[in-house]
Write a structure and sequence with these properties.
This protein has 2 domains: 8-227, no CATH class; 367-537, no CATH class. It has 12 helices and 20 strands. The chain has helices at residues 8-11, 13-37, 41-44, 68-71, 74-84, 170-177, 183-211, 213-236, 292-307, 315-318, 342-359, 424-430; strands at 49-54, 60-63, 95-98, 110-119, 122-132, 160-164, 167-168, 241-248, 261-269, 272-276, 321-324, 376-383, 388-395, 433-440, 456-462, 467-472, 493-497, 504-505, 509-515, 520-524. A 7-stranded antiparallel sheet has the order 2-1-5-4-3-6-7, with helices on both faces. A 5-stranded antiparallel sheet has the order 14-15-20-17-18, with helices on one face. A 4-stranded mixed sheet has the order 8-9-10-11. The radius of gyration is 23 Å and the shape is globular. The termini are far apart.
């Protein structure tokens, strides 16, 4: 018989649930502050950012309903940060910045800021914001293009203490801003991250004053235990399975013959699950190589989807999944491999591979394949209306896979991304471009008992000379798979017309292209796969 003290989850479940829920609300509050104070439309309108709270040991205790590829990588990011700056040495007002994919980051444009939260002399935890800066330098405007090593992708920032005693270090900040395009906007976005951290400090401080730092720490620990037990219980109620699936990416943007393979074996035994990527291709020249943190994020997201959307995500989920990913492979990139498209394209294809494998064991629980992409396009140049430099980064939605529950959604970001639509009016005001089309592609989703979601057609015209453009996409060759007899979705297509010449088809990943007035780009994203066999007509 256990005579030890009861945990707060048992002795006071009401307080536990109130405070646990407040931690997630604080993450949402951080995000709203950053959106309202940021300079970039990518943040203020598209919300390409994520927020999380950590306990005093650096473990995730709460996170926003934000970008899955950002959030699943947090444990790896903070591990690298605390190796460089041990927790015992942190003081109020400190702040560390990092974006290095080889130090637990995702890709270079995702810049993380970690700050501690104190109550008196007691360390309550840390806040983390991961914000997509629309540019971090490199060979192409928007820092998301095709190149063969990470040193060409932009400024790589290892963990650096950029804030001391609550004030940014001007020497480090000057170094960072000297290496990006439109530095005044990047400075504004960085200040927005500081504002988000201050809101987290304020709100967590209120919890510490109301309940005491010891009770708050206990709830943070129990929240992870609660999630871990819930995930294991859900897994235990599923039939055991040993399934495998593999797919190839649509090239790497450099080697015309490269078709890198993602192979995954999933073993579910009792309350344990292992995902083994042995057999996946070695790193390739182009930017589709995934850092381990990105691959792990894809696994965590899929695990959460499998066990149910009501599971509160935190370190408890991340502790359950065992991941095997050979070093130097496309799912565990080795320096100096380029990685920028892995965050947006490879991560989504990893999820589709995992779902296709799980569909062999649990077809009633798993959706069909998606458009497998974020479909990133970037633009940059000088606006003749203002004689000022501009940079634009945007994602384009596509079709999601159908499931037993219903048709797939059309024209949305899927899986590892969760950004909102950027109004074309905002883009046209900010840049010398004109949109010619922005519409769904009817019937592009795979047919089935449940129809796959439709892709999107987006076309634009350049209104000045000297604009750089790049496209990173997927599924121009390999369609989204169906499940249970559902049909595959239609393929993606990207075209460029320069001058009065005919439109030419672009590979899935291309750029930077140097464009002139009147040049046109058209992007058509793929449809999602169908679910189930259609009844006989």
């Amino acid at each position: 018989m256990n005579t030890g003290p009861q945990r707060i989850i048992d002795r006071d479940p009401v307080t536990f649930e109130v405070v646990r829920s407040a931690l997630y609300a604080i993450c949402a509050d951080m995000k709203h502050v950053i959106m309202r104070t940021s300079f970039s439309p990518l943040l203020s309108l598209s919300a390409d950012l994520s927020c999380a709270l950590l306990d005093a040991t650096g473990r995730v205790v709460g996170q926003g309903r934000d970008i899955p590829v950002h959030l699943g990588a947090v444990p790896f990011t903070v591990r690298a940060v605390f190796e460089a700056f041990p927790i015992a040495g942190w003081r109020p007002g400190d702040g560390v910045i990092v974006n290095d994919p080889y130090a637990g980051g995702t890709h270079l444009p995702d810049v993380s800021l970690i700050m501690p939260i104190f109550h008196g002399e007691a360390l309550c935890g840390f806040s983390l914001s991961r914000v997509h800066w629309p540019d971090i330098g490199g060979i192409a405007a928007g820092s998301s293009s095709v190149c063969d090593e990470i040193t060409k992708e932009g400024l790589r920032i290892p963990p650096l203490r950029i804030i001391e005693n609550g004030q940014p270090r001007q020497d480090i900040l000057a170094l960072v801003l000297a290496n990006v395009r439109v530095p005044e906007d990047r400075y504004g976005d960085f200040r927005a991250q500081i504002a988000g951290a201050r809101r987290a400090d304020q709100r967590v401080g209120e919890l510490a004053r109301a309940y005491g730092p010891d009770v708050l720490a206990e709830i943070m620990a129990d929240a992870q235990t609660y999630t871990r037990r819930l995930v294991r219980s859900r897994l235990a109620h599923l039939p055991d399975a040993d399934v495998t699936h593999e797919e190839t990416l649509d090239g790497d943007g450099i080697d015309p013959y490269a078709r890198p393979r993602i192979r995954a074996r999933i073993v579910k035994a009792g309350e344990a699950i292992t995902v083994d990527f042995t057999g996946s291709s070695p790193c390739v020249k182009g930017p589709v190589n995934a850092p381990f943190a990105v691959t792990a994020s894809s696994v965590y997201y899929t695990l959460l989807a499998l066990v149910g959307g009501d599971v509160p995500p935190n370190q408890g989920v991340y502790d359950v999944a065992q991941i095997v990913a050979p070093t130097g492979s496309i799912v565990n990139a080795a320096y100096p491999a380029s990685v920028v498209a892995a965050n947006t394209e490879t991560s989504n294809r990893i999820v589709d591979v995992l779902l296709a494998a799980l569909a062999k064991a649990y077809p009633e629980r798993v959706p069909a394949g998606s458009y497998g992409s974020a479909c990133v396009y970037t633009l940059g140049g000088v606006d003749p209306r203002t004689a000022s430099r501009f940079v634009h980064y945007e994602t384009v939605g596509g079709g999601s896979g159908a499931s037993r529950m219903g048709d797939g959604a059309s024209g949305i970001r899927v899986h590892m991304g969760n950004t909102m639509n950027l109004p074309i009016e905002a883009a046209e005001i900010a840049m010398p471009i004109r949109f010619l089309a922005y519409e769904l592609v009817p019937g592009s989703g795979g047919r089935g008992l449940r129809q796959g979601g439709d892709g999107v057609r987006k076309a634009l015209e350049i209104l000045t000379d000297g604009v750089e453009a790049s496209i990173l996409g997927e599924r121009t060759e390999s369609p989204a798979h169906g499940v249970g007899g559902g049909e595959a979705g239609q393929l993606a297509r990207f075209t460029l017309r320069t001058g009065d010449g005919p439109a030419r088809t672009l590979p899935a990943k291309s750029g930077p292209h140097r464009l002139a007035t009147g040049d046109r780009i058209e992007m058509v994203t793929a449809g999602g796969g169908g679910w189930g066999k259609r009844p006989q007509d």
